Amino acid sequence: MQQDDTPSGRGATRYDPKGVPGTRLRERLREPPPGPARPGFWRSPVRGVRFTSVLGAVLLVGVPVLFVTGLLSYAAYNPDLRGNDTTPDRGWLGFYLFAWPTDPHWLYRLTQGVHVTLGIVLVPVLLAKLWSVVPKLFVWPPLRSAAHALERLSLLFLVGGVLFVFATGILNVQLEYIFPGSFYPLHFYGSWVFIAAFVVHIATRVPVMVRALRGRRHTGDEDGLASPAPAAPTISRRGALGVVGAGSLLLFVTTAGQSIGGSLRGTALFAPHGQDPGPGPNGFQVNKTPAAVGIRPEELGDDWRLVVRAGGRERVFTRAQLLALPQDEAALPIACVEGWSTGDQLWSGVRLARLGALVGGTAGEDEGVFVESVQSRGAFRSAALRDNQVGDRRSLLALRVNGADLSPDHGYPARVIVPAAPGVHNTKWVTRLTFGAV
C-alpha cells in the first residue's frame, strides 16, 4: 500500500500488487533460471527463422518419401502370410497392405535403395534442423497453458520419434543393431509415432516457413530463434547451409554405390556391403554365411535332402535328382533391407511351380509356398511366398549361378530366388518346401 499524490486522489491510499508477497514470487518464477533457458545463452548468429525454414523445406520433401518407401518395404515382406510378420497387433496400421508384385524385377532394389540412401543423406539436414531449434526446447516457463503443454508434448514425440527412427535404421544398416527386441516392430511402430507428430508439426509450422522463405532476408526474431545478442559471426547462414549440403553430398557418394552398383560400388565406403566381394561367378554380396547362422558343413554335404510337400503328399530329392529335372534360368538381383543390392545375376534351377506340380500341388494358381532352411539360428529361417510369386516363371529353386554351382555362402546346395522379393525371402540352404501352407 502507498500514498496516492495524484490530483484526483491526493492523500488516498492506492493498491500496489508488487507489494504482495505472492505476486513477487510469481514474478520470480517467470524469470528464467541461469543457463539455457535465458535468451542470451544461445548466441549463434546463424540461428533464425529463415535458416530453420530452409532446412525444414528439405525435410518436408524428404521425410514423406522416406516414409512411403518404408511402407513399401514393409509390404514387400507380405506380412499377412504365415511366419513373415514380426510386428504383432499392427491392426489398422497395416490398412494399405497389398500383394507384393514380381514386376518389375528390380522394384524392391529401387524402393529400398531410395529408402536407405535418402535416410542417410538426410542425417546432416536433420541434425542441423534440431540444432537450429534447440533454444525452443528450453523456453521459460516450460508450461504456459494447457495448449502450450500439448504443443510441448507433440514436440517430445517429434524429436524423440525422429531420433529413434533414424538411430534404429542406421544401426540396422551397419549390422550393429543394439536395441532390445526385433528391429522390425520397433522401427515400424516408431515410424508411425514419428510421422503422426511430423504431420501435426507441419500443420502448424508451414505458414511460418512459407513467410520466411518468401522474404528476401531474415525478418528478425519472428519465431524466437534468433539470438537477441548474437556473437560475432564466423560463418554466414548461407555458408552454414553449404556445409550441411556438402555433408549430405558426401554421405550420398559414400553410400549410394551399394544400391546403384557398377563403378560406384567401390565408392560406398560407409556401406557394410559396398565393396567388391571378389572375382568369380559367386563374387557378389553376401548377407549371412553358414557359420554365422549355425550351419555345420556336414549339413550341406552329400546327405542333404530337399523335402517337397503338398496336400498331404511328399517327395524327397537329392541335389543330383534336382539337377536332372528341366532347368530354367532367370537374371535377377538380390536386394536387402540394409539398402545394398547386387546387379542381375544369372540363376539356374527348377521352377518353384514345377516342384509343386511334381507332388500334385497347384502352385502358382491358388497357393503359395512355405520355405524352410537348414539354418538353425538367427532371423528368417523360413519365409512364405504368395501364389503370384510362386507362379512367376522366374521364381526358382536355384542350384547354380552365373554358370557355376552355388557357393555355401550363397546357399548351396539350393536356394530360392524370386523377382522383386526382399533378400531375406530368397531363402538359402533350403531343406523343405510346403505348398499350400501359407
TrEMBL record:
Keywords (A to Z) from UniProt: Membrane, Transmembrane, Transmembrane helix
Residue ranges of coiled coil: none
Superkingdom, taxonomy of origin: Bacteria
CDD domains noted in UniProt: SO_family_Moco (cd00321)
InterPro entries in alphabetical order: Mopterin_OxRdtase_euk, OxRdtase_Mopterin-bd_dom, OxRdtase_Mopterin-bd_sf
Molecular function in Gene Ontology: oxidoreductase activity
Matching Pfam families: Oxidored_molyb
Keyword Cytoplasm part of the UniProt annotation: no
Boundaries of every Oxidoreductase molybdopterin-binding domain copy: 301-435
Membrane-spanning ranges: 51-77, 114-134, 155-175, 187-208
Keyword match Transmembrane: yes
Region (Disordered) residue spans: 1-38
PANTHER family the record matches: BLL0505 PROTEIN, PROTEIN-METHIONINE-SULFOXIDE REDUCTASE
Protein name as catalogued: Molybdopterin-dependent oxidoreductase
Annotated source species: Streptomyces chumphonensis
